[in-house]
Amino acid sequence: MNEFFLIAIVVMIFVIIFQIAKASEYVSVLKGEEKSRRQNNKINGFLLIVFLILGLIGAWYCNELYYGKTLFPQGSASVEGEKIDQMLYITIGVTGLVFVITQILLFWFAFKYQESDNNKAFYFPHNNKLEVLWTTVPAIFLTILVVFGLKFWFKVTGDAPKEAILVEITGHQFAWDMRYPGKDGVLGKKNYKLYNQPSGNTLGVNFEEVESHDDLHTTEMHLPVGRPVKLVINAQDVIHDVGLSHFRMKMDAVPGIPTTMWFTPKYTTEEMKVRTGNPNFVYEISCDQMCGKGHFSMRGVIVVESEADYNKWLASQKPEYLTLFPDKDPANQSKAVDTIAGASKPIAKLTTGTN
Amino acid sequence: MSTASLHETTHHADHADAHHGHHKETFITKYVFSQDHKTIAKQFLVTGIIWAIIGGLFSVIFRLQLGYPDATFPWLEDFLGHWAKGGKLNPEFYYALVTMHGTILVFFVLTAGLSGTFANFLIPLQIGARDMASPMLNMLSYWFFFLASVIMMASLFVQTGPASGGWTIYPPLSALGDASMGSKIGMDLWLVSMAMFIVSSLLGGLNYITTILNMRTKGMSMTRMPLTIWALFFTAVLGVLSFPVLLSGAILLLFDRNLGTSFFLSDIVVAGKVLPNEGGSAILFQHLFWFLGHPEVYIILLPAMGMASEILSVNSRKPIFGYMAMVGSLFAITILAFLVWAHHMFVTGLNPFLGSVFVLLTLLIAVPSAIKVFNWLTTLWKGNIRFTPAMLFAIGFVSLFISGGLTGIFLGNSALDIHLHDTYFVIAHFHIVMGVASFFGMFAGVYHWYPKMFGRYLNNTLAYIHFWVTIIGSYLIFWPMHYEGLAGMPRRYYDFSNWESFKMFGGLNEFISLIAMLVFAVQLLFVFNFFYSIWKGRKVTTLNPWAANTLEWTTPIRPGHGNWEGDIPEVHRWPYDYAKDGIDHIAQDVPVGAGESKH
């Protein structure tokens, strides 16, 4: 019933507006079209200048309302992201100035030079000096922005520092999986055809190879504060994107083409709770590339903590190999067995299982 | 109103037409399979308007979800059936709506509806030709567009829903039916429809280029063409050179989907199944897509720029400032448009060096854009400005082009793009600069040339209401989105309420949705004004209602097929002799006087 009322009201408003519009057309015919045209001209000229003033006030007011909600007052949570913030401020400065000047000129000219009897249009078809001026000035400003931008770009996209810890992140509809390389510092190789061989091997890790035996498979990412981390990014089904807005980082996850990205977390999650004044603060991984029905819920969590807490967490995780092959777990065996030598049996099963 | 009186008016209007076609026209050849460029233009415009209403309505429905994620709307179920069970929009259908909104607005409205309308209508009239180089191809261009429309429309009604992988249809999402409902039959229909659309666009484009190069009237040298024609010329060149690349991408994607090839697929496990495809590259598709996709932005924008230039000059009663610089900057934009596509791909793992080249080329586009803006401002300076509805929309176009163009400088700079990519900042940017600005150019064009199209005026009061609500509303909708984007809020999310990082914008999202509905309602007012005035608008009584210099105003009030009754006028000057030697305006077909100063 409510909807009908709503529709009726909207239709009624339409009819009223239309009747007024129709009536004003007749009035203008009665008054003389030229006279009413001039009157409209005055009204619209005035409205343009009002729009400019209210618009600029509105832009300022919008900034008051929402700047605090952007990520910039709290600063970048990664060391590299500070460069990006700096770049943002430079760009806002330059474009903001141009924005205000050009919009003021546009509406001011429109208002000032509106049609009137003691106003004559000025025949001014071209002026090469002016053209040169507004070719070179923007070119200079843009050069500055390009130079700064590329300096930061090459820094951020360059090779990760040698001491960076390695974490692999894999996106699939609609969740994230992490892999840590374990003590040997090397991630075991994967082959997508090994998916679920043996059952539970959701990332397709090749457990034939020794490097994989100490790898951890987790659904939450833990990182130590102050140490560079290099992410190796994979996707299993469609393109996803690792979006880390607090760290000012983002990289697509493309099936078949691993990508990387690195950064250095500056604040622990606990510190960020204080900085943002939000006791529920959490670093979130958002999927930033449309990936299907559950795209909006493809959320991951990063816990940044002290080196000690991080090591404690690492130690508490059980290698995936031992979860998938419980018989290889020393904890499950009365006799200590060399897990590496003992790996030969499951491999036989594994290779017959593929293709 | 009785039907009798309606008949009488149309009958009467028919007599006002200048009939001098050499062949007898039936209803079918005059209004359906017409080869008259003016009728084809109107066909494009009306089809475009219908698509714009559908595309706009889709945005209203998904804005309802974004503004009120917790509410249910039982009437939605009556209307959408199983896609809105219990009045709650299904996420898959939400994505389908987003995808179709983009596809419809970008291709069907702002490409076919804008270029198709004004290139067809203005090129022969403004260069002094009786019709297009090939009226037959021109007619086919419309009917291929119609076919594309029918197929796209049909895809809305298939059981698994229309395409839902975003208007950019990135594979593997768009290639695998198992990855998304919309990637089943809906996606095949999308691709076939786009193939038809591209054929339409190529037939049209080749015709526009040929006509402009070969069929100008005596004295109409290239540098005497109005800027609208220059803009439409470069638009056609862009389309002809870039659309075939999208066609190739679409065909390869059809192969991947249906014939088991692996152009874009590799190493995929989907829905628990290991796919055999190896060696393809999902990124290859993005290169093919954006090689069209970026020029497409300018295909949408250039006609609006051309029409705004013309309308600003006519209504300032002043020549356009820096005609040659305007042509040069259009040319520069056309060339650069082909060299910047990878700026859509900064975070795909692109080689950083390659990225840096694209940063440089992308930001270079800001230079010709700045030239255009300052030239428009100087055109207004010391004018004697009349605020016709067309003029207001042209001024609004410049304002929006500045606002949206400047945020392009943020996104084109790869370092900043890392943070802003695929957030609401991007939505704000391209909606302002390419969506709303081009719509403003299109509205300006419709208000300005409506008297030539239909021999009647649109209602002025409705036009002013339309302008003011639209410009204020557009800024209210898209300006605050920049802030959401700076907070990293991602595009194409169905619901933000589970995100600690983004849920604080709930109130703002509701506000945006409310304004969006209001602005949509006012567009319906425009549509009403448009159709009502075709039959009931105030009649045009003078040949040249805006006192403009261009050739279309030398034709009869309602030109017949062939445009001019006698010979085509000869051209003696450029189209911007306003306020020259103290004379208000000197039309292009007026010979140069003995004592006339040179410009």
How would you describe this structure in keywords?
heterodimer, A: Immunoglobulin-like, 5-stranded mixed beta sheet, 10 strands, 45% helix, disordered C terminus, B: mainly alpha, Cytochrome C Oxidase, Chain A, globular, disordered N terminus
Strand order of the largest sheet of chain A: 3-2-1-5-8
Structural class of chain A: alpha+beta
Secondary-structure content class of chain B: mainly alpha
User: Which regions of chain A have little confidence, pLDDT < 50, spanning 5+ residues?
Assistant: 336-355
What's the quaternary structure here?
heterodimer
For the secondary structure, the number of strands of chain B is 4
Summary of the model, kept short:
The complex is a heterodimer of chains A (355) and B (599). Chain A is α+β, with helices and mostly antiparallel strands.
Strand-helix topology:
The complex is a heterodimer of chains A (355) and B (599).
Chain A: H1 2-31, H2 33-66, H3 81-112, H4 128-157, E1 165-172, E2 175-180, E3 216-218, E4 221-224, E5 229-235, E6 240-244, E7 249-253, E8 259-263, H5 269-276, E9 283-287, E10 299-305, H6 307-316, H7 320-324, H8 344-353
Parallel strand pairs in A: 1-5, 4-10
Antiparallel strand pairs in A: 1-2, 2-3, 5-8, 6-7, 6-9, 9-10
Chain B: H1 3-16, H2 27-32, H3 37-67, H4 74-80, H5 91-127, H6 135-155, H7 185-214, H8 227-258, E1 269-270, E2 273-274, H9 282-316, H10 323-337, H11 352-364, H12 366-380, H13 389-412, H14 414-420, H15 424-454, H16 460-478, H17 481-486, H18 506-536, E3 578-580, E4 583-585
Antiparallel strand pairs in B: 1-2, 3-4
Helix pairs in contact in B: 3-5, 3-6, 3-18, 5-6, 5-7, 5-8, 5-9, 5-15, 6-7, 7-8, 8-9, 8-10, 9-10, 9-13, 9-15, 10-12, 12-13, 13-15, 13-16, 15-16, 16-18
Please characterize this protein's 3D structure.
The complex is a heterodimer of chains A (355) and B (599). Chain A has 355 residues and is α+β, with helices and mostly antiparallel strands. Chain A has helices spanning 2-31, 33-66, 81-112, 128-157, 269-276, 307-316, 320-324, 344-353, and strands at residues 165-172, 175-180, 216-218, 221-224, 229-235, 240-244, 249-253, 259-263, 283-287, 299-305. In chain A, α3 (81-112) runs antiparallel to α4 (128-157). The longest helix of chain A has 34 residues, at 33-66. With 599 residues, chain B is mainly alpha-helical. In chain B, the strands form two sheets. Chain B has a two-stranded antiparallel sheet with strand order 1-2. In chain B, strands 3-4 form a two-stranded antiparallel ribbon. In chain B, α8 runs parallel beside α10 (323-337) and α15 (424-454) runs antiparallel to α16 (460-478). The longest helix of chain B is centred in the N-terminal third of the chain and has 37 residues, at 91-127. At the A-B interface, α1, α2, α3, α4 and β7 of A face α5, β1, α9, α10 and α11 of B.
